[in-house]
Queue: 2 jobs
Job 1
Amino acid sequence: MTKPIRVAIFGAGPAGIYAGNILANSYPNVTIDLFDLLPAPYGLIRYGVAPDHPRIKGIVNSLHEMLDAGTIRFFGNVQFGKDLNLNDVRHHYHAVIFATGAIKDAELNIPGIDLDGSYGAADFVSWYDGHPDVARTWPLNAEQVAVLGNGNVALDVARVLAKHADDMLKTDIPANVYEGLKASPVTDVHVFGRRGPASIKFTPIELRELGEVEDVDIVVYEQDFPEGWFDEDAEGVTNQQKVMARVLESWRNRPSTGASRRLHLHFWHKPVEILGTDGRVSGMTFERTANIAGQTGANAAVTGTGELVHYDLQAVYRAIGYWGSELPEVPYNFEKGVIRNQGGRVVDENDNAVNGLYATGWIKRGPVGLIGHTKSDAMETIENLVADIDGLTDPVHTGLNSVLELLDSRGVKYTNWQGWLALNAHELALGAADPSQVQRERVKVVDRNEQVGISRAAQ
Ligand code: NAP
């Protein structure tokens, strides 16, 4: 007979759901409660993936099945550190897994970063994905915009900024996002990478997709492609890199179609300063870079050449990586923006494992990798948790509902799986009833209280 254990997971995004599912499948004598700060599940998929990426959003279907199987209980609108603290969790569970992700923007310390019109990509993504905790309006009043970074988030932001709003209508964007994008006067979106075109961190589908956006011309610059910029035969070159090099090559000689908007890809541009006029972004200075002598390929490091270049711009979005948030009383690595851990076991400042605490996903290893990677990550964490079971401290409270009684006693309006099913059905019905001519699968409810109200009415 195996020891019965109770496990709490904080974060109902892909990382938390995969961890719960893998745990349920590898240790049958477990009850799992999955909490999220937001009233609805799915984390990054609902609030991070671009609305015009239905293929990735489709991962929700398998996550739905995992939660619908009934082995994991979902509770939304519960904040770790506020509604439940570490002590509460220890009193109710043998173990807790943190899967809270990385939702802040990494900092960029250059002059002018705090000017009006200088934004973090994560905030913009939250806006266009209808995150309940961000402002409903976004100041889209720039004609020329910079997006800093050469990763997929930069591509998402650049594409959403450049795309005509009507081409976004069939997605699940909230009405206010459609209105905001529709009124945008943008004509030119400039994406800047600090290294060369061989060092991009995009993925092929996402890069190629840029060239297919209606009424948007892709512009690349000859001086950014030095002789021999990409060597297909070099050691370690991946197929993905080869495909992307061909895509970039195909854009080098592509004539303008006279599109009303342009998306420029610049390479070898290290951010130096955001320039302002009357407190608002009016331009940006970059230093051109070059590979350090002898370095080639995707991992080549660059150095500044001393050549400064200026652009007139009215907005700057930095998409230079996300950053994990510290959780109260949980050991945190401030240099990496992750929970201190070894293989998913949370460790203190002396690298000793803390009984019953685990981490998985971006808060464990940092904000890199695609959604599928969180699965292998969860496997490692769960393997270690299961190996530790005999040594886990027993909780004081063993009743399945004692934690819910605690939340009730604190007036926490938590949502549950039944509530999500109701909210989901409500959003799908709103989509079907949309009077626009475009078929919309879903219209997201944005307001937190409204989400909670719809969910709790069905619980
Ligand atoms: P990322 O892939 O790590 O890219 C970050 C980019 O920012 C890199 O080009 C990096 O340049 C640059 N950067 C970092 N610090 C900088 C600085 N100080 N100045 C200028 N540039 C700087 O991160 P991400 O774009 O946030 O994406 C996170 C993960 O989510 C990635 O694995 C991504 O593929 C995934 N994702 C996937 C999709 C999709 O549609 N499939 C969408 C969004 C995100 P260096 O290379 O020089 O460091």
Job 2
Amino acid sequence: MIISPRIRNNICLTAHPSGCAAEVKKQIDFVKNNGPIEGTKSALIIGSSTGYGLACRVASAFGCGASTIGVFFEKEGTETRPGTPGYYNSKSFDTEAAAAGLFSRSINGDAFSDELKQKAITAIKEGPGKVDLVIYSLASGVRVDPVDGIMYRSTLKPIGTDYKSRALDTMSGKIISMAIEPAVEEEISNTVKVMGGEDWQRWIDALLEADVLSEGVKTSAFSYIGPEVTRPIYRNGTIGRAKEDLEATGHRINSQLSKKLGGSAFTSVNKALVTRAAAVIPAISLYISILFKVMKDKGLHEGCIEQMDRFFRGMYGGELEVDNEGRVRMDDLEMRADVQDAVNEIWNKATDENIEELSDLRGYHSDFMQMHGFEVPGIDYDEDVKTL
Ligand code: NAD
């Protein structure tokens, strides 16, 4: 089948298997070129097929030489339809891991369910026996709580006030204005239910009960804070409440694991990146396009793999910047005063006429396409490819 990008409402509905494979290979080469990491020997990555989770799996396997168990929720390709990018990423990861003689097991299903947790435990027992690293990197709009069977939906809304902002339609490249009404109480609690720490805690409890965590185990989940301009919609909004809950859960898991196994838990505040979710929040797209331009001009830009390679090297024997709330700050470069000042200046003067020149619209667009395996150098998009 010949696969081309099909984009509707800033969402790309197709993915290219060879392009995705090349992107995974690029991440593997990046980590290998930076040299081996004396770190995890066996890692469980929850949310391992795209974004930060995939980069963690690559760093674990190809940096540390670890066995990996990856959990994700992706659509498989069929004879007539391409699957989602994470499906192809995970297939290529498994192929590369096998070629390197590394144990890898990929489990496609709902990580929020008890059934999938048991499948992961079985895979750990059949493979490395125990894991010494658990990365929790889920990003989801919905969660079925296995306790009450209810499906909760997360929202991205401000709390207590309207959010009016300039924003960017990344497909047309036009500056637009957006307005979102404040969330009602139920939307706040539902967002915490989906993206807060409850499920991370349930994973750790299940893994502890099954005795598949090693002495000194580490676990980490990812958070975000971001700049003033997106504060009402992000950190002070519904998702920010969920991130506060995730961070508080990290502290609870930390005391639980330190008592039981001399282990530790922490959250890491990561850098803003182009993701499938970010593309549907136009204010965040505008911020990211400007941020990328500023960080590239200053030679500070990082993508997922650069961030997670630095995170792993810092976590194992290096140094990680930690703030006074115990969070690792991988957003240190993004939040540097000179970077944020430059972003603010551009934010205030961006117009339809100058946005192309003042922001990295092109870089944003190419990251978005490459996330789906398109516009990847060296790939022949006229070639017939297998979608399965
Ligand atoms: P992503 O969308 O690229 O990856 C999410 C992963 O979760 C995928 O592997 C997906 O298959 C999996 N997943 C989703 N629902 C699932 C389910 N029900 N069962 C099993 N797997 C499921 O996301 P990302 O951008 O890498 O975000 C990961 C974490 O990092 C999130 O907590 C996010 O808030 C945080 N973060 C992201 C950014 C950013 O800019 N992208 C910045 C800082 C922190």
